[in-house]
């Protein structure tokens, strides 16, 4: 049975202490395919330069995500965290940029827009990143209006690590693969690689990457975003955060007037619940941003 909301909160509380994933010889979305030209233009690469590093100094990083409204990108909540690993409702890098509308991060076309704020979902590893200006020529992906179901096939797109040995560069082209839903919980799903191979799997920096269903007529709907899982490549499931259950929060957040950085969500209630529950932490490797 997939972890419940309470177990998810345990995962969130323990994630700051989780052992980091170390890159191995795998491609972004291990054993995935290059995305076709101009396909999945809603897929986003969030680049972060000048992140505060533990012990001082700075580092650069990136996450994946999806455009869900002209000014808003959905991604993993742990993509916005301070040097101590705590999720925050703000940008933490000296500069955070969304690359939208192109499959090649360094290629032509598309947009590069500054991220000016972040909002954390409560009780889920999901955040919304606010853009400095709207993107009007890339259709956003709509949220799913129904829950995923076991056995359903979803597609994932992400800008995770390349397999060049040093684990520091994004892929030259957006990667994609299909996955089968193994189990569905209140806030999470488990999904395992289906094609091109059974060990097709998300890798670090695929955090926040969109799992979406493809429907007749070319319609797509966002089902979940990458959250955590074992080292890649691997067979078997990864954990991803459902988004259909967050539809009300997403709608109220994305309908706000442009206002720059937004306040963070208080996690005190979740911490109190954990303290009273006395549950053991579920050990899951957080996808590294």
Gap between N and C termini: 27 Å
The total of beta strands comes to 13
Unreliable runs, pLDDT <50, ≥5 residues?
A: 1-27, 260-285
Class computed from helices, strands and strand pairing: mainly beta
Query: How can the largest sheet be summarized?
Result: 6 strands, antiparallel, barrel
Number of helices: 3
Describe, in plain words, how this protein is organized in 3D.
The chain is mainly beta and 289 residues long. It has 3 helices and 13 strands, in the order αβββββββββββββαα. α1 packs across α3. It is globular, with a radius of gyration of 17 Å. The two termini are 27 Å apart.
Keyword list:
about 290 residues, mainly beta, 6-stranded antiparallel barrel, 6-stranded antiparallel β-barrel, about 30% strand
Give a brief description:
The chain is mainly beta.
